[in-house]
Amino acid sequence: MHVMAVNSTGLQSSQGEGPDRSRPSLSADVVEALSRTFLRCVECSTLYPAIEAGQAPRYRCACGGVLDVETQFRLPQQQHLADSSDSVEYGSSSEVESDTPVAGAAWRQLFDERAANPPIWSISIDKLLLDYSGVWRYRELILSAPERFVVSRPEGNTGLYPVGIENCGAGRMGHRQIGAYAGLERFFLKHEGENPSGSFKDRGMTVGVTMANLLGATAVACASTGNTSASLASYAAQVGMKGIVFLPAGSVAGGKLAQSLAYGAKTIQIEGDFDDAMHLVEQVCNELGIYLLNSLNPFRVEGQKAIGFEILQQLDWHAPDWLILPAGNLGNTSAIGKAFRQAYDLSLISHMPRIASIQAAGANPFYRSFMQGFAKRETVHAETVATAIKIGNPVSHTRARRVIEESDGIVEEVTDEEILAAKTVIDRAGIGCEPASAATLAGARKLVARGIIKRDEQVVGVLTGNLLKDSKTGIPQTLDNTVVKATIETVRGVLLHE
Ligand code: F0G
After folding, report:
1. Best CA proximity match to 225, nearest among 433, 389, 360, 419
2. Atom of ligand 1 lying closest to residue 391 CA
3. From ligand 1's centre to the CA of 328, what distance in Å?
4. 359 in helix, strand or coil?
5. What are 371-410's pLDDT values in tens digits?
6. Sign (positive/negative) of CA torsion 454, 170, 318, 324?
7. Contact between residue 349 and residue 343 where contact means Cβ atoms under 8 Å apart
8. What is the CA radius of gyration of the chain?
9. How far is CA 109 from CA 106, 199, 305, 309, 317, in A?
10. For residues 365 and 380, is the Cβ–Cβ distance under 8 A?
């Protein structure tokens, strides 16, 4: 094929029919590791095996619905754990039998031991320190994969900042401004912009690229508003895979575009918006046998669940009342909601947090559907300064709808002005974030003002991307006007007249 040398990722088990070099065979340990993992259609409930011998990877059901990973969770054999049986199996979230506190205690102990005393960063090439990753620490709940295939930077372990009026801590008057702006006493911000490539996407990408790796893929692709592409480019480069990213021309913030180019991904800007790019990449991947790494890929969603698990662990397994996050393609709403549901089913926590998904008013299809009791799936032509969430036809609508319904959650919209005002508050507190992330604070403020979130409820908001991703939007660009003579007199004049 002239386009590029890309192997098919179609699969064939070791015992499969004759040799077909374009379809790498799977080793026995991969087949065994994934034998208890299935994909269920979120629309019609059809169940598929996670990998199908001789078949290209499956991203959709025959009916067109997107797929959700279902697996059996198995507590590993650990002599020191409270439960000393060989292994303890729990069903998938829908089939859980055990709900005892003991079950939850054993899981909590496992994850807490892994998180304690993280090894100093003297990483040896042979030994991947899985416990040190904020995703693979929870591996039993994420993906069963032989360790040699895991592609990790590592990721996660991001800050959870107490910023509420009451919980910000003595002396943190800057952070307290955020709580005051929202009107919340006990408020935390989880800064996913502290991940290796600067956004929460790394959590899903480590799992997606690991899947690509164990399936023998040589090329991976995504459509993106900029962060997924930056993350894909980074993780693909780490293992020498070809990264291919489709971006809506003119709608990607400079820092993100620079990352994709710097990490060496084939960067294709299309005439059109994210929704066009998304449609295109699915066709391209199916036709050219490239492994697709948008959140249409259900394994990416599994990785993003780790945001939820890590928040719970940082709160010592006390679930907050609310979790607020920005919403675009709705992968993250789906993932964090699923994590909370599974944590609850495994008795890691005693109640489900309510989820509030915040959309930009100019890119609000999920909000419009919510306002009709989800009677109809809406699409819009998206326009917002928060380019990361400029999405009019979200892929994970059905998954996310389930999360909002199950968690007694809510969908809210905020204007661009509200987003930029909230961003300034977060930036001035010294924490900083990219515009889309500030929808979280704008949404919190609005939901508190509406009386939906109570002032004394415990709330966690997710900041999804780093300030440096977009150094233009919502940041004063006046540095040129402040060039002064390098003399003490001039500087004294500038400072005293401020
Ligand atoms: N915040 C940021 C910074 C994002 O980059 C995205 C999505 C979202 C929020 C919304 O998350 O799509 O899971 O609802 N960015 C994708 C991308 C679309 O291509 O980087 P979502």
Report:
1. 389
2. 18
3. 6
4. strand
5. 999 999 999 999 999 999 999 999 999 999 999 999 999 9
6. positive
7. yes
8. 23
9. 5, 28, 19, 13, 11
10. yes
Compute the distance from residue 327 Cα to the ligand 1 centre, in Å. 7
- Is residue 386 within 8 Å of 361, Cβ to Cβ? no
Give the amino acid at 95: E
The DSSP H or E segment spanning 426 is helix 416-428
Atom 1 in ligand 1: which residue has the minimum CA distance? Answer: 464
The sign of the CA dihedral 171, 177, 183, 186 is negative
Query: For residues 212 and 215, what is the distance between their CA atoms, to the nearest angstrom?
Result: 5
DSSP letter at 118 equals: P
Q: Angle at the Cα of 119 (from 116 to 122), degrees rounded to 5?
A: 170
Query: Which residues face 188 on adjacent strands?
Result: 162, 460
The SS3 of residue 245 is strand
Pair type for strands 291-292 and 322-326: unpaired
Strands 458-463 and 322-326: parallel
Tokens 């609005």 belong to 446
Q: Are 470 and 255 in contact (CB under 8 A)?
A: yes
Ligand 1, CB within 6 Å, residue ranges: 199, 201, 224-228, 295, 326-333, 388-389, 434, 436-437, 464-465
| Cα 173 to middle of ligand 1, angstroms | 30
Tell me, what amino acid is at 235?
Y
Pocket test for ligand 1, best of 389, 414, 426 (most atoms within 8 A of CB): 389
- Asked if 385 and 482 count as a contact pair (C-beta separation under 8 A), the reply is no
Cα torsion 328, 463, 473, 397 to 10°: value is: 0
Q: How many CA atoms lie within 13 A of 31 on its CB side?
A: 14
**Mean pLDDT per 10-residue section of the chain, whose length is 498 residues:** 47 47 73 94 97 90 97 74 40 38 83 79 61 94 95 95 95 94 98 98 98 96 98 98 98 97 98 97 96 96 98 97 98 98 96 98 98 98 98 98 98 98 98 98 98 98 98 81 87 84
Ligand 1 mean position to 388 CA, how many Å? 5
CA 46 to ligand 1 center in whole angstroms: 28
